Amino acid sequence: MNYNIRGENVEVTGSIKEYVERKIGKLERYFDTPPTSDVNVNISVYNDEQQIEVTIPMVNLLLRAEERHVDLYASIDLVVDKLERQIRKYKTKVNRKFRQKGSPKHVFAELEREREAQAVQELDADDELEIVRTKRFDLKPMDSEEAVLQMDMLGHAFYVFTNAISGDTNVVYRRRDGRYGLIEPS
What we know:
By secondary structure, the protein is an alpha+beta fold. The protein contains 3 helices and 10 strands.
């Protein structure tokens, strides 16, 4: 894996870089072949609190986790634990899904790239709507079950995707009661 480690309000020293690479490198044991994607790591310090955000774009899957802690090395450990749980959860669901369909179990290593989708809007003091961030992403055809899985992996409240059956753009979202909803065009 190639590492892109960035620091915001903190200098990324050699020891920090080495620690991040060693800890995240342990995730390679979960893959049949080591991922060739870039691992993006953002380390920031705000009010004596260390935040680390790790994004690993992979085929059909985007691993992303962030963690805050007063100790930088503890936050790195916590974010790696979070990524490990995501990988195990995803592999379990993928293996279960493909066992039911009779497909091979080693699908996890052959997934295609996907970019993170997130829309952020903020109301300013004048109550005028101002878009403060824009993201562009490719919509991958998938079924609603896979979209819910992707949404959960990202830790988002909604996920935009192309319905593989109808070809329409759909949105899955997490309801307040913990269940999921699907928005389809009429």
